[in-house]
Specification:
The chain is built from seven helices and two strands; from the N terminus they run H-H-H-H-E-H-H-E-H. The protein has 196 residues and is mainly alpha-helical. It has a single domain, classed as Four Helix Bundle (Hemerythrin (Met), subunit A) (Up-down Bundle), CATH 1.20.120.1760. Strands 1-2 form a two-stranded antiparallel ribbon. Helix 3 packs antiparallel against helix 4 and helix 3 runs parallel beside helix 5. The longest helix is centred in the middle third of the chain and has 26 residues. The termini are far apart.
Length: 196
């Protein structure tokens, strides 16, 4: 089988989980076309969960590969950069101010992921805010605008700050307090999304 489909040589549990994360992202796009912010956020939650699991399992069972790292980066860009900016464009607004901040966010996300992709050092920390964390903060901001009247100008400022954090030199410990705190926020945010 691998003779005819050589990509099957990369078939392992972490890469299957990465693919499942992509499928949740595709589902989020369908919810976007239907105007369902709740559906988008639930899909992004499960996609983020897949992103956490694929890296954890790859490290735990020594299944880290160049293919897996590259696939994970492509999925992260789609899930954490493209879907949020489209969501904001369609749900929050399309003023020049918003579009400029979204463009900057997406560019910084790309540069952060590309930098991560060419970095070969296996450190126990991230340099700059990882894109899944950035995506969560952006989507919470969107929720605050639509449900609590959060001012648009403040959102724009937040988008720029999050973008700058992604390409900054701050060091964040892998699986450290900041990452646990983001998951506590996600898990606290999820019931609010479902019940609203």
């Amino acid at each position: 089988m691998k003779k005819f489909f050589p990509v099957l040589q990369y078939l392992n549990l972490p890469n299957l989980i990465t693919t499942l994360g992509l499928i949740f992202g595709i589902a989020a796009c369908f919810y976007l076309s239907e105007g369902s912010l709740k559906g988008i956020l639930i899909c992004l939650f499960f996609s983020s969960l897949m992103d956490l699991l694929d890296g954890f399992i790859a490290g735990k069972f020594n299944q880290q590969t160049g293919f897996g790292k590259y696939a994970d980066t492509l999925v992260d860009f789609f899930i954490c950069c493209i879907i949020p900016i489209l969501t904001i464009y369609f749900f929050v607004g399309n003023s020049l101010l918003i579009i400029s901040s979204l463009t900057f966010y997406c560019v910084c996300g790309l540069w952060r992921l590309a930098h991560f992709g060419v970095t070969t050092k296996k450190d126990n920390y991230f340099t700059g805010l990882p894109v899944p964390g950035a995506m969560l903060l952006v989507m919470i901001t969107v929720w605050a605008v639509l449900h609590y009247g959060f001012p648009i100008w403040l959102c724009v400022v937040i988008f720029y700050l999050i973008a700058l954090l992604m390409i900054s030199s701050i060091k964040l410990l892998k699986y450290g307090f900041w990452q646990k705190a983001l998951w506590v926020i996600w898990l606290g945010f999820l019931p609010v999304i479902i019940l609203t």
